[in-house]
Amino acid sequence: QVQLVESGGGLVQAGGSLRLSCAASGRTFISSYVMGWFRQAPGKEREFVAAISYNGYSTYYADSVKGRFTISRDNAKNKVYLQMNSLKPEDTAVYYCAGGRPLRVEIVAAYDYWGQGTQVTVSS
Question: What is the pLDDT of residues 67-82, one digit of tens each?
Answer without folding.
Answer: 999 999 999 999 999 9
